[in-house]
Design brief:
This protein is an alpha/beta fold. The chain contains 13 helices and 9 strands. The radius of gyration is 19 Å and the shape is globular. Residues 320-345 are annotated as: Disordered.
């Protein structure tokens, strides 16, 4: 494994059309060469030595930036990293063009094997939730605990609001959508994405919105943007249709790691009703239900998700010194869990 440090981009810098990704204060990026892929990894230097490692995996159309808020709140608890899956964020496409759930899982496994960081506290959102479920099932030696935020596990009745995303998997749809939306501005695209992914888009700060627009402009200029989106969407649809031991629900049954499930009541992409099935399926699970959250609870409610992760690690004996979580956040999380969450089997 080869690794190259990437310099941060000052917020005041005038960015070219295809610019380096934004790096928040306290973060760093590095490029990691692996067999068949090059991955960009985002990290925060650990506040002290000896913290257990954690790895975060984003969803369709996302990037490691989706985890910046949560990683900041997990300081002092874990040594956090987040990677850009092949073809997303700042990672180039995979050499073999494999964007399936298995292909993405293979990239995660290769990184963990090469980095020697396993076993890790593995955290995934949406498509990343499907990917990390597969990793935990086939390589339990690499996973201490598993946290899934709105995981993209198969649903028989898909929500109507999720259908347009699924349609990206069909041949010709991505080019058609590109032509139909060629006059849309980056701001319009970001507002559309936020309306779909957030329970309350009003929670996004002006700075957060500007950063999202900047990232949209950067990603949209990449020649492989739509190919990565379409092929990954196809990979999710294909994973939904797999049966037998390779089916995602069957693999969820095989996960040995203690599992935290986080579902949002306003999620328009993953059905809220799937939370109870997931809690029954993962053998050692607990459920955090956030009625006001959408598809990216770790971005909307990072304090509550961080507190739930802290409790998971504490209850499973994985917690060292307590993380510093605000009294207000802890109280809110306890109230929310008391009212809406229950432990799974």
């Amino acid at each position: 494994m080869s690794s190259t440090e990437l310099p941060p981009v000052p917020a005041s810098t005038v960015l070219p059309r295809v610019a380096p990704v934004r790096v928040a204060e306290g973060e760093r990026l590095r490029s990691v060469g692996l067999p068949g892929a090059t991955l960009t990894v985002r990290s925060r230097p650990p506040v002290r030595e000896g913290l257990p490692p954690a790895l975060c995996v984003h969803g369709l159309g996302g990037s490691s930036q989706n985890w910046s808020a949560l990683m900041q709140r997990l300081e002092g608890l874990v040594d956090s990293e987040a990677l850009d899956l092949p073809g997303f964020g700042d990672s180039p496409p995979p050499d073999d063009g494999d964007y399936s759930v298995t292909g993405h899982a293979r990239a995660v496994i290769r990184y963990l094997d090469a980095a020697g960081r396993g076993p890790v506290h593995l955290i995934g959102n949406s498509m990343g939730g499907a990917v990390t479920t597969r990793v935990a099932a086939v390589r339990p030696d690499l996973v201490r605990t598993l946290t899934l935020v709105s995981p993209a596990l198969p649903e028989i009745r898909v929500q109507r609001t999720a259908v347009p995303t699924a349609l990206l998997a069909l041949p010709g749809v991505a080019p058609l959508f590109t032509r139909l939306t060629k006059d849309w501005t980056a701001e319009q695209r970001v507002r559309g994405v936020m309306a779909l992914c957030y329970g309350d888009p009003g929670r996004v700060t002006p700075e957060g919105f500007r950063a999202a627009v900047e990232e949209m402009e950067r990603r949209f200029a990449l020649p492989y943007f739509w190919d990565a989106m379409a092929r990954s969407a196809r990979g999710i649809v294909n994973a939904y249709t797999l049966g037998g031991q390779h089916g995602l629900w069957r693999q969820a049954e095989r996960v040995l790691a203690p599992t935290l499930l986080v579902y949002g009541g306003r999620d328009q992409l993953v059905g809220y009703r799937m939370a109870r099935r997931a809690a029954r399926t993962f053998r050692d699970s607990r459920l955090l239900s956030l009625p006001e959250a959408g598809h990216v609870a770790m971005m909307e409610y990072p304090d509550l998700v961080a507190e739930a992760v802290r409790e998971l690690l504490a209850d499973t004996g994985e917690l060292g010194e307590p993380a510093k979580v605000s009294d207000e956040a802890a109280g809110s999380a306890m109230a929310d869990e008391a009212g809406t969450a229950g432990a799974g089997s």
